[in-house]
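ingest -> validate -> predict -> emit
validate: passed (alphabet ok, no gaps, 637 aa)
predict: started
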Amino acid sequence: MRKNIAVILEEIWSAYTKDVVSEIFEYFKDKDVNIIVSLIRLPNYVEDTFDYQYFSALKLLDSDEVDSAIFVSPTFCSTITIEEFEKLLVFGKNKKLISIGIPLSLPNAVSVQTKCNNTYDLFFDHMIKCHNAKRIAFLSAEVEKSAEAQERLDSYKAALKKHGMEYDESIVYWGRFVFEGAAEAFKGRIEKKEDVTFDTIFCANDMLALGCISYLEDLGYRVPEEIRVIGYDDVEVASTYKIPLTTIAANLHDVCLKACQLAEDAADGIDVKDAFVDTTPVFRRSCGCEYVPQKENLEDAKHGLVKMGLDREVDLNRIYTLVDCTEEKQTLPKLFKKMPEILQWRDISFLTVILYENPIVNNIQKPFDITEKCHLVFYLDRENDICMPDCSYEIDMLHKFWPDELVGKKSRNMIIEPIFYGNIQYGFIMSQVRPDNLSFLSVCIKVITNEIAHAYEYTRKLNENTKLYAENMSLNVRSYTDELTGLLNRRGFMHYSREIIFACLNSGKKGTVLYCDMDHLKFINDNYGHDLGDKAIKAQAEILRRTFRTGDLLGRIGGDEFVIIATGLSEDKIPAIESRMDKISEEVQKDLNLPFKIRLSIGGVPFTLENTDVEKLIQAADKKQYIKKEEHHRSLN
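emit:
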């Protein structure tokens, strides 16, 4: 029986991540196993974005279709702590999780880790005995967030101690696991050649090491003649860089091999345990060793660079034309009809679109959810010559990803990405990928998911406009209208309020929910009668009509209780609204020749992406209104 193994990662751009995914694809290429890659970005890592939407894909770990999961944990734990990462893993508790590189304390998790203590010892021996190293520095990443960076720093400290050297904070630098992390780490501490007080520097990974070489060369240093640089990981570029990089090989192939074996065993119900892989030293030119790369390796590297440049230009052109193909307002049926042709030139041979029966509003402050009832609405499988741009299969994502007749004869490597716009999620895309086109395809899929979201909203609005017109021409409108005032009643207000709020937020605007109540309505009813009391309520409705704009939503939800959604209104403008309302009250009183004054109390609260519950907003606005009413009473006394 075919298995499904999820591969969860935070980014797909680094050489490390691409190598991991390539190794996983290679291991399973001849096995009856679907690999489902899911990009799960860190929520709120980039402020004011909707990256938390990607976390909804973690819910799929609860699906019966997923048998086990491999987490590329370093991609997460270079920016958050292990504890923070573990708190995010609220799904898949009944599945075995295989963590690459970092141990997790979760009861259902095992890890594949590298051991580097002995390798650092070997390197210190080599640098001291062969290259006369006397002062050895360390360029680290954020150890408070990265367990890998902490382990490498600890190994560096242990090697110092073993070789009788003191740990010196003045030659330890803190950067990030990227090329530019070296310049960021040295800024303010090494500005000129004389600021360098070390002769050798170990770096927490290869990209930091390459950035370090570049920075030192800009200062006028010669590597390795004056300063030796050692990296960690042994990524592909390490051996082909202009100064071939001496490094500690993390033996990624063996790590991924172990992780795949554990995931495969776990999927088959076999008990699995933690595994360990030794690191090994790789001596090249940057530490001062003689290193002559084999001619065929240089030729392969040159050919690879040329091909990479050509491929990049081709990919950019494909993305450019893809954007052109999607730059128009179109309905979902029209988009799906065009998609087979759009996908033909993007190396996409298999793609499905799965939409929820109703879109989900995801909020970072509440658990992510996936509705069980979904519809597979687009299916393309070129290998089996299947193209269905207008299909409609009802499926339950928590039990089955595809109908049985569409499972396919061969297993696939796929990427899954959510379809969302702002905080509204519509479903998922699943597309077949190759290891060499993962980054490019992810960009293409993002363009396509955005277009599906826009087409969905455009289609919905067209349908709603048609429906609204029909409703306005029918007696059903009465069920939404308050007979006394002609405004929306509670049912009508609640029906339209959610749409108004989300349309406002999705367009980047602010807005406020207000609650308005009449002062002393009981006094009016008791002293002037209920007919004039009703007239007072009508006057209150007229005051609100004149106070607010035609585009604002007004409703009477009971007695003299009115609610308003004022788009574009910030909370600090409420005093101005009150002043305007008091002036209009006097005008209405005269217009209607009322024998009493109409005094209204109003309070409001802003709605935000994190606060869209209309009932709760009304309750909060009511509390603000009550405070204002109390102030009115005290002023009269």
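DSSP finds 17 helices and 22 strands in the chain.
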